[in-house]
Amino acid sequence: MSSEKVIIKEDRPTAVQFSEIQIQHNDQELIDTAKKRLRRASTSGSQAIIAYRTLSITVSENQAKGVTKPKRSQKDLAEDLSNVSYHKLSITELEQQYRTSAIRGLGLDQIASRVKEHGKNAISPPPNNWFKKIYDYFFGGFCPLLWIASIICWISWRPLGDPNPSPLNLTLAIILMAVVFIQAFFNAWQDWSTTRVMDSINNMLPTQCLVVRDGKIITIDAAELVPGDVVHLKMGNKVPADLRLIQVSDDLKFDRSVLTGESDPIPGTIEDTDNNVLETHNVAMMGTHVLNGSGIGVVVSTGDNTLMGRIACLSSNNKSTRTTLQIEIFRFVMIIASLAITVGLVCLITWLAWLRRDYPDFLTPSAALVAIISVLVAFVPEGMPVAVTLCLTIIARRMQKNNIVCKVLTTVETLGSVNVLCSDKTGTLTENKMFVSDASIGRETFTSEACNQICSSGSDAELVPQLTLLQLTAALCNGSHFDSETAHLDIRQRVVFGDATDSAILRFAEGMSPAVATVETMRADTEKVFEIPFNSKNKWMLTIVRPLKDTMARSLSSRSSPVTTKDWVLFCKGAPDIILKRCSKILLPDGYEADLTDKRTEALLNIQAKWAHEGKRVLLLTRRVIKAEDTTDNAAGTSSFATWASNMNTDLVVIGMVAIVDPPRPESAETVEVCRRAGVRFFMVTGDFPTTAAAIARQIGIFTTEYPHTIADLDPAKKMEEIPKYVTKSIDIRQAKDIESQSNSTLDHKMDDSSYKSLLLSGSDMITLNDAQWEQVCQYEEIVFARTSPDQKLRIIKEFQKRENVVAMTGDGVNDAPSLKAADIGIAMGGGSDVAMEAADMILLDKFSSIVAAIENGRLVFDNLKKVIIYLLPAGSWSELWPVIVNIYMGGPQTLSSFQMIVICILNDVFPSMSLMMEKPEAGLLSRPPRNPKKDRLVNFNLLLQAYGFIGLMEMLSSMFMFFYYMSEQGIPPSKVFMSFTNLTTDGYMGYTSQQLNEFINVGQSIYYINLIICQWGNALSSRTRRLSFFQANPFFGYNKNWYIFGAMLVSLAIAFIILYIPGIQNVLLTRPVPVKYWFIPFGWAAMIFTLDEIRKLLIRSFPKGPIAKLAW
């Protein structure tokens, strides 16, 4: 039982021990997972682990060689650490060296000078590699292709263009270089904006710690720590600086995996265990976590002088991996690039094999290269970097407004794919504002108000001693304490340090005064001999005290068991199903102790069941009087004492029970309902008693049946192929206004076999499950996992992931950290432990309902990017490809000039695509099944069919019609244009001069160009929604208002005016004003595109299973 010992140096005073839930890391599977999934938010990463191990070996070698001369350069860090000796000092020597007091801490007059000397306790950000960043800005992504295209255009201008170089080729070369610079600017702006957003997010995260200053325990920001500060640590804390431990509980353990890569818990000690400061156990290192227990340490290093700070300097060149969103975007770019290169090569081969031989004057080498480069550049989605940058910035702002913190912004898209959400109960689904509602003595039950009234007024004198004993048990076997600075406030408003359960019991005990005295007085009248804090393995807390006054001894006595000041009293509180096995007697309302018979045990269990069915958490309070002659002579800090104490934790007397209420958050029920409607199965994973967990689950809608299945309904012999799989069915969305009002039967996502509805499992049940039973478990729609341990929570996550589910896990405690790291996306509550927030990918700083906004934004990112792509492809590639095909394969003029292609991509289409990123979620976004990352891609056949075969085809055909219609009006019918090759620009062709023919072509190209710009208006208005009509989500007013799109359309048109009507640009780029009537016809084409797409959406809504719906993007 060494894990229950408390090590206290005998010449030092003791302090109040902290009581917290303990996490056990004995499961090898959990340890292996922790090794594989090191904290994703860590700035040190694997290089930090390598650096730590390398330093540790070097330090040990140097100490063995006797290296003593300190060196301050960074490259000699190992030699520097070899000379560190604070871990070898006694506590008295440590106090002298750092001019501090282990009892009173630093004086306020010492703080200012130390802050000036040592600075803030913060690690400096790694230096920016500006050269690499600038290189990536100008040569990353598609920039190499644009550079090559620009160089070829330069060569096409000269020397290939000599003796008559075309100024258009020079202009193209300059424009392509400008595109590179524009992209570099947006990449730099994205870096800057992302840094700014993440800085603001980091400022929102709470990083506080408990320190002793001038003899008072106060809370300060970790950044304000200075060397010499005395810091209190408790389970769940992140160590705020390098600390030399001076007081520890024997169960104190640290997780150093962020540095070592090993998840084996490191015990905390007072004495050094190794000459190497990196290996000794009496130093708590900055950035590591407290897994169990509590302790006190003196700050020896802060900021850049800590080990974490020094290693950060050695590990600042980590390469980041692509997120799911980045992979999808890269895949899209590669698809388009492959098409562009393929078409370009085919065109080049055609020119070399056919046109150059049969029509040598038709396309000169210079003109052919420019035509091919135009195709390549036109295919490149130049607007995408801008759109993605804007998207992430918008999402960042929306998430901040909802008090959601994403450590890596692009992980929000993962939430759009989540189909299983496992949530902790306490502090997540409930308010974590617990209070004692009921208490019992024997078979009699009382409300907490009745207990207070009886003890205060003495209305039932015979019952007062028993309630007093219950009050003392609640006060003395308790790991929380009041903040002395709030003593003047009402009990409900006073600040309590400790976990929610102990805090509730502490307020209950304080509220029963003045039966004896205040809790502070009770504790002052007793001496704490020993304590084992509550932990998730034992599920109980033990405290041994000795009364210091006769009055306290009498209060601790019962009619059957008197107590003297020489006796010890052992208190134990915890889960009834665990502690009842250790009890042999029960305190009756009359003050006598009686044997705990089966009938009395059944009565207790009935009370527990009644309270649990009401959603209340039940704790049993017990004690044992240890007479003076039975006490041990072993020192309280020895392992033998801990073993003795554990052996004495039997033959307990039941004092009573208390029922604790933790009200559900007001938004929890609605959150569960919305998640279920969104196709996300919502499960509860808690450590509470099954009946209590089931009651809360019914209150908030996780359970919709009165009698859920249990392990008895899981057939261990059932064959895998006989188990029906959970199927998320598509939603029939007919009208936006009907979506929210549809019945649950319409919106529920049901399984093929309705018998798999609700399931209640306990941790003991999960131990016995085989693979067939786990397969059955994973098909249930509503599940509550109760009485779970940390390794069982991890097992739950893994089982659902094995069946290709995307799992999100929410939690706020230390016990949740392993499962938060193992989940596809871990979500911590802002008021939770530092360990949980460190392990999570996302943090909810406010209400739990914010998770709905997070899921919605995750789906919105993907939806809006699809809309941008649908908008960019028709004019940006498809309608630009066909002019080159007509030119090369049909012997006609290029109906759209190469320069106009580039202008469409980098100017005209950018602003409307940006406006599409401003679109709000469509009605029904949260009524769709979650995205399957392996099947539902950003770019798929349906999207390309919509972009090329529907919108793109109409835009291309209408633009071609406009070009040839204009040529026909000039007396040159299409039959004279096709296969004309060089004739169309030859003097005398169709009675026109060469100059007139070229003028016709320039005007026709300008008409094609303006037709595309205006047709894109219809595309932009259509692409705003995927299923809903424009009129159901109109952009003028209401929820879907988006005036940006109209401004963007006007900006696109204004650019076209500049290109077509500024004389200087006309002469250089060979653009021409468009005749008036050719301005109005394109609006008809745009209206046609818009109308046909509205009809398509109507057919989808009317026939959701029809062929058009199946081909919808």
Written overview of the protein:
The chain has 4 domains: 2-107 and 225-314, Calcium-transporting ATPase, cytoplasmic transduction domain A (Distorted Sandwich), CATH 2.70.150; 132-196 and 333-401 and 855-924 and 935-1110, Calcium-transporting ATPase, transmembrane domain (Up-down Bundle); 404-429 and 665-725 and 744-845, 3-Layer(aba) Sandwich (Rossmann fold), CATH 3.40.50; 435-639 and 649-661, Calcium-transporting ATPase, cytoplasmic domain N. 47% of the residues lie in helices and 13% in strands. It contains 42 helices and 29 strands. Helix 8 runs parallel beside helix 13 (383-401), helix 8 (167-204) runs parallel beside helix 34 (898-908) and helix 36 (941-969) packs antiparallel against helix 41 (1077-1102). The two termini are 63 Å apart.
CATH fold-level name of the largest domain: Calcium-transporting ATPase, transmembrane domain
Give Rg in angstroms: 37 Å
Q: Residue ranges: pLDDT <50 for 5 or more in a row?
A: 1-46, 67-75, 315-319, 730-754
- The count of strands amounts to 29
Helix content: 40-55%
CATH C-level class of the largest domain is: Mainly Alpha
**Count of domain modules:** 4
CATH architecture of the largest domain: Up-down Bundle
CATH superfamily of the largest domain: Calcium-transporting ATPase, transmembrane domain
Largest sheet: 9 strands, mixed
Shape: elongated
Distance between the termini: 63 Å
